[in-house]
TrEMBL record:
GO terms for cellular component: cytosol. It comes from Longispora fulva. The keyword Cytoplasm does not apply. This is Glucose-6-phosphate 1-dehydrogenase. Residues 190-482 form the Glucose-6-phosphate dehydrogenase C-terminal domain. InterPro entries: G6P_DH, G6P_DH_AS, G6P_DH_C, G6P_DH_NAD-bd, NAD(P)-bd_dom_sf. NADP(+) binds at residues 50, 93-94, 149. It comes from the Bacteria. It is an enzyme of class 1 (oxidoreductase). The active site is at 241 (proton acceptor). Transmembrane segments: none annotated. Residues 13-188 form the Glucose-6-phosphate dehydrogenase NAD-binding domain.
């Protein structure tokens, strides 16, 4: 089916419809899908929060808040006017069961439609909301519940949330969102790996030297310091996004793209992750510095108090199976780094022998770079002959597939794809319970080691590439972090 074919009629109920995520991501994505004709005319979007807003107030607020987050050139007055009419707001405290009657009134008549309860609120509310939806009789056969990250702060709390939500929703109704999986390049990883003969035979330790996954942000924590300080980079980024990316790179070919076929393979990777050793993890925290020439404060200054929370983490990860034995996966993520860039680098091994002889040109090994942001695309580095007579002057060059250039189309935001998958009932790009719990099982010993370590995170200057120890982590193995190149 074409991705912008209309989806079934749906009532989206956004718990936290006045929050940052709703205004920045969910409502822009729904507007764009509506503008492109994917939502049926009777689809409704019902926001829930404690704010005393009428439907009209909410429509005005969405207009004021959301326009700034729409991609350039996508605002269309007629499309917006139609979208505005879909919006409703109900004032209710989600912990108060009696108040759900008000929500029930607006949903009346929609019992046969898909009902998507999007929990864009604090994870501690996931259990109470689920229970109250059940008690209020609002969970229909076609209902789905969408859980935003983080699913817990450790294995026990993740299990508790999963138990509470699982007590009233079946697993197939639960959509644990990891928006990285909705990114075009990430889905393209599946197409590159499994729709081309070229890569799969080489996708293993015999041909691949190592893999790097980097998610670098140049922003600091800003106004989200309260949330972030309880989480840190390991919980906020590695346990979910980076491990999910690692799974898609490392998993065995699933038999199909069916949700369980893919998720079974990802789970096997998580279960094969080797526990990290003492030298395998570096945590850091930014100090003041300069980003793009502007002076910026350090983490604790932004936070307004002391903290040992990490804003950077780099790891060397092993996967104990036949395919990946001996191939390290280097992961790193951090805030206030020198650039905003996310990429997966698959570094192939050098050719076993140069036929050009000892005096011939130096040969660099092939490298496949998948850019997640900015400029989603794929780059394959090859050796090629420099044109001209006489001798073999070989030079590295790259095949560059930049999606915006190649397809001459706007790259949709991950949430656009994921929200439509929820209505379609396709959970392939969402995390299953056992995946989330396996990821916590692997992450927990790192958290425990940090809790017992009085030294704390290593400092790094804002605007740098992270602490020196992260560079040493990979250089100890005779390798270097991939930096952006011009070829
Ligand atoms: P936020 O800006 O603090 O918004 C929270 C929303 O929940 C508000 O609409 C708030 O409205 C509502 N709410 C809070 N308590 C409520 C209650 N008892 N009853 C009814 N409504 C209540 O948070 P956010 O940044 O949008 O994040 C939402 C969720 O997404 C969190 O789990 C967060 O971890 C996750 N997330 C956020 C981002 C992001 O970029 N923002 C990214 C990934 C994941 P009232 O206070 O008016 O009730």
């Amino acid at each position: 089916m074409h991705q912008s074919a209309p989806v079934a009629a749906c009532d989206f109920v956004v718990f936290g419809g006045t929050g940052d995520l709703a205004f920045r991501k969910l409502l822009p994505a729904l507007y764009l899908r509506d503008r492109d004709g994917q939502l049926t005319p009777d689809t409704r979007i019902v926001s829930v929060s404690r704010a005393g807003l009428s439907d009209e107030d909410y429509r005005d607020k969405v207009h004021a808040e959301v326009r700034a987050f729409l991609p350039p050139g996508t605002f269309d007055a007629d499309a917006w006017a139609a979208f505005r009419e879909r919006l409703y707001h109900r004032e209710l405290d989600v912990t108060n069961l009696a108040a759900y009657q008000d929500l029930a009134k607006v949903l009346v008549g929609g019992e046969d439609r898909v009902r998507a309860f999007y929990l864009s609120c604090a994870p501690k509310l996931f259990g109470p909301v689920s229970r109250n939806l059940h008690e209020a009789g609002l969970i229909t056969e076609k209902s789905r519940v969408v859980l935003e990250k983080p699913i817990g702060t450790d294995l026990a709390s993740a299990r508790r949330i999963n138990d509470e939500v699982g007590a009233v929703f079946h697993e197939h109704q639960i959509y644990r969102i990891d928006h990285y999986l909705g990114k075009e390049t990430v889905q393209n990883l599946l197409v590159l790996r499994f729709a081309n003969m070229l890569f799969e035979p080489l996708w293993r330790s015999g041909s691949i030297d190592h893999v790097q996954i980097t998610v670098a942000e140049d922003l600091g924590v800003g106004g989200r310091g309260g949330y972030y300080d309880d989480a840190g980079a390991l919980r906020d980024m590695v346990q979910n996004h980076l491990l999910q990316l690692l799974c898609l790179v490392a998993m065995e070919p699933p038999a199909s793209v069916d949700a369980d076929a893919v998720r079974d393979e990802k789970l096997k990777v998580l279960q094969a992750l080797r526990p990290t050793g003492p030298g395998d993890v570096v945590r850091g925290q930014y100090r003041s510095g300069a980003v793009s020439g502007a002076a910026v404060a350090g983490y604790t200054e932004e936070l307004g108090g002391p903290s040992s929370t990490e804003t950077f983490v780099a790891l060397r990860v092993g996967i104990d199976n036949w395919r990946w034995a001996g191939v390290p996966f280097y992961l790193r993520t951090g805030k206030r780094l020198d650039r905003r860039s996310s990429e997966i680098v698959v570094q192939f091994r050098p050719v076993p022998h140069s036929i050009f002889g000892a005096d011939g040109p130096p040969l660099s090994a092939n490298r496949l770079v998948l850019r997640l942001q900015p400029d989603e695309g794929v780059r394959l580095h090859l050796m090629t002959k420099e044109p001209g007579p006489g001798g073999y002057r070989a030079r590295g060059a790259s095949l560059n597939l930049q999606f915006s250039e190649t397809f001459k189309t706007r790259t949709p935001d991950a949430y656009e794809r994921l929200l439509m998958d929820i209505v379609r009932g396709n959970p392939t790009l969402f995390m299953r319970r056992d995946e989330v719990e396996a990821a916590w099982t692997w992450t927990e010993p790192i958290l425990a080691a940090w809790a017992a370590d009085a030294v704390g995170p290593k400092p790094y200057a804002a605007g740098s590439s992270g602490p020196a120890a992260a560079i040493a982590l990979i250089e100890r193995d005779g390798r270097t972090w991939h930096e952006e190149e011009s070829t």
